[in-house]
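Hi everyone, sorry if this is the wrong subforum. Our group has a chain we'd like a structural model of before ordering constructs, and none of us has done structure prediction before. Sequence below.
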Amino acid sequence: MTGSTPSPDWQPPRSSVWAWVGYDLANTIFSLGVIGLYLPQWILEEGLRDSALSLATAGAGLAVAFLAPWVGARTDHQGNRISVLAVTTGVAVLGTCLLAIGPTLLTLVIFGISLVGFHVGSAVYDALLLDVSTPRTRSRVSGLGVAIGYVGSFIGLGIGSVVLGMGGSYATVFRSLAVGFAVFSLPAFFLIRPAPRALPTGSPPQLWRIVSDLYRSWKATRDYPLLTRFLVGRFCYTETVNTLIGGFLAIYATEEAGLSTSQVTVLLGAAIAASMAGGFFGGWLASRLGPGPAVRMILKLWIVTIALGVTAGISGLTVLIWIAGLSGGVALGGLWATDRVLMTGLAPPQRLGEFYGLYATVGRFAAVLGPLLWGLIVDVLGWSRHAAMISLMVVAGIALHILRGVNPGVSYEPSPSSGDSDGKTMETDPPKDPLGT
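Answer:
Right subforum, don't worry. Here is the predicted structure as tokens:
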């Protein structure tokens, strides 16, 4: 073994692979059950405005934007990703248990704290992809994680439907979802075996230097110009996607497309089924075309999906919202399956945790801007939610433009000239291994 890369003949145990996949299922219980559906429904039931969700989500996103790179860099240095994942998961689970049992403001604050634990943990979890796959299997394992992970969405929907159907409160729903999250995440903490690799020397990064370290990490990406372009493009498309799945899609479907709460639940169930197929499709597409072209193809599908949703809301043609739900599900599963493979292919292995922190950071800054933009359009400017949806479609188009030509090269070596911002120094014909390793 040399550097930070496992030896060529290293193979991850099957138990590690399945435990990693199982964690994807666990955190999808939280992302769909809490973020995507039942917290927005609770907000509507409490008579709150869209900006209540915007501010809670944006505040959490701002915290994650600074914490995730620091946590990622420390796990690179100390090799303790499993223990950190356990702590962040515990924060999310405990916070979920406390939702809707106190004043409205307290619930929104606790929700924000839970989001911080969830998203910082997700950055650590994504970096574990190197520990449960080889370059040849990475796309398939990532796609499997997304596809199987969406089973957690069905579990989350099922938990909420049963509890509410039996007359339970939203507080009971949240506690039940927290239990599901905790139970399905446990195998990851005990069964994932980190790949053997040398750890960096020197002192670990300090929390008080978080801003300067963040700047230094971002500056370091200039040695990998395709990585820089990917992160900028990711900022744009995660603004679109995370705003929608962060609760605003449920609000739009209910308030603008005219669906009932039960119909929204069915729609999300159909979208989840499509997401499972999308996860497998995304993994296959990344293997066939390379992760860069796969991401761009899926972004085109996102733009079409949003256009269908807006048309449904304006025209009242309900059938279009169902078509949009299915296509959006495929696009969602496909994007998350290809997105992290592209990130893994563009970042140097010895700094993967650090750059995955940046990967999470751009997503979290987008999670700040996206909800705030929605709240600005709807609650401040007084425009329609249709206008807010169209703004998200435009931002997705910008991401597609930025990512043109981005695909991993044949090596992780920095480009000779960090000033070559168009990325041509790393652009090569995609190798048979789509990760270029």
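For your construct planning: Residues 263 and 332 are 20 Å apart (CA to CA). Residues 410-437 have pLDDT under 50 and may be disordered.
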